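[job 4417] fold queue: 2 targets
>>> target A
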Amino acid sequence: MMASLKTPTLKTPSFALSSKPRLPSAFSAAFPNTARFSRSQPQRRRFLIVTASSSSFSNKPTVLVAEKLGEAGLTLLKEFANVDCSYNLSPEELCTKISLCDALIVRSGTKVNREVFESSGGRLKVVGRAGVGIDNVDLSAATEHGCLVVNAPTANTVAAAEHGIALLAAMARNVAQADASVKAGKWQRNKYVGVSLVGKTLAVLGFGKVGSEVARRAKGLGMHVIAHDPYAPADRARAIGVELVSFDEAIATADFISLHMPLTPATNKMLNDETFAKMKKGVRIVNVARGGVIDEEALVRALDAGTVAQAALDVFSEEPPKQDSKLVQHERVTVTPHLGASTMEAQEGVAIEIAEAVVGALKGELAATAVNAPMVPAEVLTELKPYVELAEKLGRLAVQLVAGGSGVKTVKVSYASSRAPDDLDTRLLRAMITKGIIEPISSVFVNLVNADYTAKQRGLRITEERILLDGSPESPLESIQVQIANVESKFASAMSESGEIKVEGRVKDGIPHLTKVGSFEVDVSLEGSIILCRQVDQPGMIGTVGSILGEENVNVSFMSVGRVAPRKHAVMAIGVDEQPSKETLKRIGEVPAIEEFVFLKL
């Protein structure tokens, strides 16, 4: 069965999730088991059950709107709930009010921290963030208190794309600088000669909703557009007339670079001294994504050196930036105060989107834009906890083995278990594998609620099978295997005989372990990070690599070698506590007997 593309039809009762503090609400969900079994077994139908306790179903829930929201959104809310619009609340005032509210809607200016959830006394059931980012909401505290957090990720797409194009054109023609000059009483036509956009190459880094809309508009301006995004569907790019390329090719050939990737550990300071050095001299950069994707000090150095001719920035690592910021004050930098979503139309769209999400959640519906998971029974979490961790880490490992430019579209998950079909719901495990595959390069928070929806949106097809084993069903699972088909691997030994990237793991003494890579058996704890090396099987290899890591003060936690036969080929898996430097990894790669290696960050 295709897990990500066939979501069960859910029928939910129409009621509010509001309750008085002394009446705890119950929120439980059971989904149809989507796994395929290798042994013919009778399967029972399972249905979604959502329950909530309330003192009175006739009472309307109360929604606190703590920051300005468009009138269309307020109208939707008022049809279902009592709406309290109280803006500019102090933290103390918010904590006082929140115990009387079932839902809270904020933008980016209100901090919804743990104290807010504790002050709600259990009544707060939904927090709606009118926008994309949720940096101002404590997700872990929300989940602990059984509160669903939803956002509005799509309504400002066009506004952000239009602002990117506006900055692109304004930068190319020195509009902001020339405007300031004329207003200062000067007339410097020769100083502000610009460059044309027609025929220039624009590299769009991050080809999601906003990036693809920027590409459409840039094509209309006569630009040649290339893009880099490991998850961008090739057919969607071709339909727009965009060529998907590697990251290095994109930054090396572009005249203009437009940034549209999320801020994740993988993209943090992605543009730095090293990447600026690879760019075409005189490149121009636009950022309407997240400030942290650029090393701002490195950008100033690149501007001063002439490597980067100009930059146009709507976002910064610290907002607002300091008044004496060298970057903001730089003559060849155009800046705006995070205006990407600031159009009248976008604000109304965000208001409608977040109002619909909040009302749906209060009715007991599972929101597609949820960014945290509903509460799961404690006994289920306790038993599955190490397997949940194993599932996510196998997903992270597998996706890091995919070579750049290969789109991940088909994933197969196999569960080996002695339990009967009805005794193990794999929904949570599937969600965590999806999380591991998607989150490292996405701003989406994948969880039990939105995993299948998120996979479908990205064209990711996940199938599951269960291998039914003989033996005692004391533990839920014997092993989990993740396969990614129709891709190339940056570590050839991870490919199975049938041509898929394959990793397998199991839980030992409560700790997730990697037990198989491709056709090679290994045994390494999934803690810290891992180095995989394919080598000629000969004496002294463990000592050689261990010595290189020791000399660089990198602590080795585990080391395991799997081989096909003595003196043939082997794969060595090394668990490390710290990330080795590039020089250290280079030294490992230069060991004559090592044929290939890869560093994988967990």
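>>> target B
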Amino acid sequence: MALATRQRRPGLPSDLPPSSPAYTKFDKKPAARSDGAAAPEDDRGLGWFMPLFALGMLRYMSATSNIVHDCDEVFNYWEPLHYLLYKSGFQTWEYSSQFALRSYLYIIFHELVGQPASWLYAEDKVRVFYAVRLFLGLLSVIADSVLVVALSRKYGKRLASYALAMLCLTSGCFFASTSFLPSSFSMYAMSLSSGLFLLEKPAMAVAVSAVGVILGWPFSILAFLPVVFYSLARRFKQVFLAGAVTSLAVLALSVYVDYVYYKRWTSSVLNLLVYNVLGGGESHLYGTEGPLYYLRNGFNNFNFCFVLALLFLGILPIARKKYSPNLLVVVSPFYIWLAFMSLQPHKEERFLYPVYPLICVAASAVIESFPDLFRDKYNPNDKNLMVMAAKIVRPLVLSLILCASHARTFSLINGYAAPLEVYKILEHHDDAGPGSVVCVGSEWHRYPSSFFIPDYVGQVRWIDDGFRGLLPLPFNSTMGGTSAAPPYFNNKNKASDDQYLQDLDTCTFLVELQLNRPYPSRGSNLSTWEPIAALPYLDRELSPPLYRSFFIPYLWQQRNVFGMYKLLKRKSK
């Protein structure tokens, strides 16, 4: 049907020449959205290619260069996976069937990639390790891309581009994205559920949240509540059914998998919650930190991005029309989770992983709103000097954040990568013969996993170096493997008599960190050993905080103090 145009009344002068086209409603600029968000110039936003490509490149770099940040990642996740693949590996007390605190469903989810990789790389377990890491990076790419595209369609390309840059390059996201941890899996779910929520898919958002909590980290349920409650308020029946069905299905699958591996009917999800919430989990046995721990840690991993994220609530009164309620709902878990975790005595960096993407989103919204701080609220087109200056400041602040992030990432990778690289060298010393024994003393907590132990090595054993806590011990196949309840495990972090090797003469290789200290170390007598590998390792205690935390050209090597991470072989008699 032809469009009818409004004709001018005869007798009135016209400012348009006779040949000028008539004005129609289709000549209007796009109107603002009903939720207050500015309509983007292009409804397609950034599109999918740019987020997938940028995140794909950076997650590949993370998978191939990331260090192992936490011994829990090794002993609670990499080692059980290694046992499922190769029937050898270390077991922690949480995997004893007596306690059954860890879910094997999370492990076998990664076995879906690890098993084909172990067939493909039959004689190279290190490649299997990195194949699983690449899978983790792929999950992060998909989840974060959905979030970026949703931000672009809802709030425009600029905010989404800022968020994309920070998701790619901030140290926190770079390292957490390829860590084999339930908190990282909850982080993927947080990104995906937030993106689906912004794309007006509340049922899918809640279903993803349920998977992130049950398959990932049960305690992260608190961080998902804002999206879940707001989604229920919008479409209760549809959202409730999606969340309930997904929760029951994943929980039932988790219970069945626990039965298969623990050989008794139990729920690791419920056991973990009962132990920590109702059972007085005694997490203080594993160290406590002050209330400012996460603020310091957040600045180290996100620098000024973290500061800007904390300021999001401050700019909300000015930008309420743009960001409330949807973006506020998405970002609010950051504040809830930060406050809750800061009140807990036992703190670890990985506990904050679930809300890492939200830090980037909140900071991006603050940077994008800089001009609004100086604009006349009654004149949205105000272009005074301060508004123009604020527009110039935006890319400068983003550049500062990204440069500081790169400095942090570079410092960690170059300062602490020695353990991974040193253990790789074992592959080239198979002349030691089958049944060789690798001994590790105080460096047990930097053990990179059995994926780095070649087949000719018969055992990895701990030697007494003064530690009096409970150490992991090999899975005992004679007792039942995953279904075993070894008597030497306890939940009080008390050392077992069986955890240390008594006859040190059986050691073929020794791993030691040699630091420059005024007092003698408790390490072994090194006179009978010869070094076959030695790499520098950043000495955290003797290096200045600024220079060890951020790579500053020329000054990083000059101002920091380094020890030597050594792999030694027993001298021939």
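[job 4417] complete. Note on B: Strands lie at 90-91, 436-440, 457-462, 473-474, 509-514, 529-538, 562-570.
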